[in-house]
Amino acid sequence: MADLSYEERMKWFHEARFGLFIHWGLYSVLGRGEWVMFNERIPKAHYARLADQFNPRRFDADAWAALAVEAGMKYAVLTTRHHDGFCLFDSEVSDFTAPKGAARRDFVAEYVQAFRRAGLKVGFYYSLLDWRFPGYWAPDKEKASAEAMVEQAHAQVRELMTNYGKIDVLWYDGGWLPREVRKDVAKFWRAQELNRAVREYQPHILINNRSGLEEDLDTPEQHVTASRAGRGWESCMTIGDSCGWGFIRNNPNLKTLTQLLQNLVIAAAGEGNYLLNVGPQPDGTVRKEEQTRLRDMGRWLQANGEAIYGSQRCALHGGMVGLWTRKRNLGYLHIFRWPGYDAAIPLVKTRVRRAWVLATGEEVRFRQEHNGRLILEALPAYPPDSDVSVLKVEFEGEPEALKEKDRAAWLAGKAR
Ligand code: H79
User: Fold this and answer.
1) What domains, with CATH codes, occur in the chain?
2) 222 Cα: distance to centroid of ligand 1 (angstroms)
């Protein structure tokens, strides 16, 4: 079991494409984002009092899971502990936890059970750093504190990996050290030893790249940027402004459904995943505006999911129109900017057999010119889907692009 290959361990993740990130903790009570303790320099003892107020009576992990399923998501990642050090789980090495605060509940346990029940894969976000330790800020001066912080992280990661059954993703964060502290991150956290233990407890697990080691997954944050082919990657992003992941009371600058779907498509086109965040309110419920967007994405995926889940990279150009994903001989053209009449794709080497609108099955006429231009003809004036419309194109073989050896050949209507 320990010898599963990278590809085998990555299989479900590679097909999943879409996951739910959940930032929820003590900071949610204040409604000014998850960085509030540090940003406002709230003293430790003062901040700790929030644990008496964190008692989310309307928390319902099944409702979160149902929302993720409705959104077409295949997995989730919950902040078991953020940089403030407050744990949503029961820990023997900390008193700063939800079960020991007013809530008296282990939210991580409830989350794992509910998401498993809903058929979703389960991930844990865990911040290695804990702002409450002076040793984080000045590891050389506060050696004992720094060591205690590292010890606590090791102990808590072990608790997370051994107390909740099978866990699919370990999403480290906060591995970095303050700017003035020049240290090797992996060495500081003893990440080699830590991750070896993690894989012993959870042989199937995927570990991200934020403990100072590359491990399994790249994690672009607030942008969608593909890694090299074969390497697992996942873009995490907020629905609202990029400065806050935890609940922000007034956060009006929300991404539109079109933006969110385009990001998902960009991720899929690069064989990566989109981990979209919600910041539930202190009572445990997800804001209506976030719910609506997730449900709308789910509706789109109901009609177009075939072009997203398990998709592969496609060699063809999308040009101005949009982006391609692919499955074997099938190309899926995700049209971001519906051209109205014809859509022209340059440098298509492979013959097309058939083309149609994925969501409706409506046939699309086409012609292929000898210079490699594929013209999808006489498209309806208005897009079949007002956000992203997908054309499904069946090719005779895996779609290949023509290589332009002569860069000026196209001027004469030739391809090379
Ligand atoms: O958990 C989320 C962030 O809190 C965390 N990673 C994601 C998944 C993260 N920690 N640090 N960073 C991201 C980068 C640091 C950003 C900062 Fe700032 C810019 C810290 C201070 C200035 C943004 C703006 C956060 C606080 C103010």
Assistant:
1) 6-307 (3.20.20.80), 322-412 (2.60.40.1180)
2) 10
